[in-house]
Amino acid sequence: MGDIPRLIVLILIFAAAFTLVQALSGLMTRAGARRKVNQRLAVAEKTSSLADLVVELRKQRGLNSDGERQGWLWFNDLVVRSGLNFQPRRWALMAAGGALGVWLVIFMLAHNALLGLVVGPVLAVIAPLVILNFAAGKRAKMLGEQLPAALEIIVRSLEAGHPVPTAVALVGREMPDPIGTEFGMAGDEIAYGATLEQAVARIADRCRQPDVDLFAATIRLQERCGGNLTGLLKMNARAVRERHKMRLKIKAAASEGRASAIILTSAPIGVLLILTVMSPHFYGDVIDKKPVQIGLGMFGFWMFVGNMVMRRMIDMRI
Questions:
Q1: Which of 163, 167, 153, 317 lies closest to 250, judged by CA?
Q2: Distance CA 108, CA 110 (A)
Q3: For residues 121-137, average pLDDT
Q4: pTM (2 d.p.)
Q5: What does the pLDDT average to over 79-86?
Q6: Where along the chain do its domains lie?
Q7: What pLDDT, on the 0 to 100 scale, is given for residue 310?
Q8: What gap in Å lies between CA 242 and CA 144, rounded to an integer?
Q9: pLDDT (tens digit, 9 = 90+) per residue, 15-31?
Q10: Residue 222 contacts by C-beta under 8 Å, 6 or more apart in sequence?
Q11: Which residues of 123-141 are buried (b: 16+ CB within 10 A; e: fewer)?
């Protein structure tokens, strides 16, 4: 009988700890969402005029005061699509620090300063590009998910009798990043003197996302040919939602192929690592033999070819 009260106490302690973790997680999530919503408003508080706000927002995206790309176009395009705050001096210092850290680690482990001098700068260049590319892909995915809700906000605002600039600016105030920042910048540019077509075209140019391109084409068609903007945006939102559903269906259909590719790739590598750790002499005694080196090289080559074939089989786009 003495074990039952102890079990009850442990269950209550676990429940209290679980509730505390959930509460802290909810508070952090809400605080993060609030910071995302108010990110552009924080920039607006530090500027004294609309012109300064537009220039500062463009500067943070890696654009010049006219909203055009500058510097290395391929790198600047990646920076703009990533949505990260462009701080070249800070990024250069972080890359230099990372290169120095890699050099120190290689020097301490391998006692080879020359190898560190080669690997460190290479990683210092490749790592930021990988991070920017990952951030750009994640941002494009979020834009596609948020765009239908943003279009519905514009539609409801127009049906309530608000003008187009007010409807666009409403998305910038109500929606979280990244769609909130993009439409907020468009609203500021419209208030600064740009037309709706120009502002939306700049959104598409900054994002380089297919659904946003469709939205820009819809606005361009309405501006030049006329028509009911509210009805066009409703159809646009419905088309974007259907495309998103189709992407999810394709992802689900290709999940088996991706799992097979991961298993077939990781299993031989895992076995090789296990044998190397548990029995170092299994390959260590023959690794210098030419037939073994050729066999392992062919093994890696055919694994690469197999992964490319499976990638082509599951890479379906709409």
A1: 317
A2: 6
A3: 89
A4: 0.72
A5: 87
A6: 3-37, 39-253, 254-314
A7: 78
A8: 11
A9: 777 777 776 666 555 54
A10: 229, 232
A11: bbeeebeeebeebbeebbe
Name, in order, each residue with C-beta under 8 angstroms of 194's C-beta and a sequence gap of 6 or more.
202
Of the given ranges (133-142, 184-193, 197-206), which has the lowest mean pLDDT? 184-193
Q: What is the pLDDT of residues 237-269, one digit of tens each?
A: 999 999 888 888 888 877 877 888 888 888 888
pLDDT digits (tens, 9 = 90+) for 5-14: 666 766 777 7
What is the full DSSP assignment across 104-129?
HHHHHHH--HHHHHHHHHHHHHHHHH
Helix (H, G, I), strand (E, B) or coil at 38: coil
Distance CA 20, CA 13 (A): 11
Can you tell me the distance from the alpha carbon of 114 to that of 111, in angstroms, rounded to the nearest whole number? 9
Which run of H or of E encompasses 186?
Answer: helix 179-192
Alpha-carbon gap, residue 125 to 157, rounded angstroms: 46
Res 46 pLDDT > 90: no
Dihedral-angle region of residue 177 (phi above 0 means left; psi in -120 to 50 means alpha; beta otherwise): beta
Measured at the alpha carbon of residue 190, what is the angle toward residues 189 and 194, in degrees to the nearest 5?
85
Residue 176 DSSP symbol:
P
Nearest 5 degrees, angle CA 186-CA 157-CA 51? 25
CB 233 within 8 A of CB 155: yes
Number of Cβ atoms within 10 Å of the Cβ of 199: 25
In sequence order, what DSSP letters do the residues of 63-77 get, joined into one string?
B-TTS-B-SSHHHHH
Instruction: Give the torsion sign (CA, 11, 13, 16, 17).
Output: negative
What is the signed CA dihedral for 26, 30, 31, 33, rounded to 10 degrees?
A: 140
**Pair of tokens at residue 219:** 């606005």
164-174 helix and 113-159 helix, angle to the nearest 10 degrees: 130
Four-CA torsion 285, 287, 292, 297, nearest 10 degrees: 160
Q: Are 116 and 102 in contact (CB under 8 A)?
A: yes
pLDDT value for 238: 92
